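Example record for the data management plan.
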Amino acid sequence: MKIRAIAFNTFKEAIRDRILYLLLFFAAVCIIFSRILALLTVGDRAKIITDVGLASLSLFGVLMAILIGTGLVYKEIDKRTIYTLLSKPIQRYQFLLGKYLGLLLTLFVMLVLMALIFLVLLLLYNYPVGGSFFIAILFIFLELCLITAVAMLFSCFSTPILSTLFSLSFYLIGHISWGLETLLNKIPQGGVKTLARFLYVFLPDLENFNFKTEVVHHLPIPPKIILFSTLYGLFYTVFILALAIIVFRRRDFI
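Corresponding structural encoding:
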């Protein structure tokens, strides 16, 4: 009950944030602009619209998660409302999970709105929408769950500006870490290869949530890949949330 109350209160607070609607507006502009871009580009126009549209959903969803998530805990500390909240019979983990779930609910609503705009554009263009389209949207949301957990982890011990930089770095590294696998095959045995292998295992691989290629080229998505990506996202998110709770419990507000 306590987690749910905090979650709904966080949702009401986040949904009033102007930056949320500013990002939603720019996301809509980018999705609509993909139609114009397709007219100016040589190639399959429908594929260009789909590729740009899905990329817009992912990018602006991540920006929402980071820009709002990094300030959720910090605002409570800065306004000193954290003292009032924690003086009540509320555990710190309940407070953090409530904030997290409230933001996830906000992101879910925003992602649905962006997806509806994108879907209308595809239907107007008579582009066939298959099951892989909705799978791609689902995994964009799963990626947002992880990024939100990361943003909240950094917000537990850092300022919003630094937390934003750290979270963006996590996102960028997560989408280029797949290149380490190619690098591992070219590096000879030694300390450098050991380090590269450690980084390959430790760093997140956010490409596991990227199914734009399958949607654009109408490729089937194997059930094994769906299962692996789902478990990967859930376990990584739980791990980051556990770290955030540990850090928040050790935080001294006195």
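Summary line stored alongside the record: Residues 2-250 form one domain.
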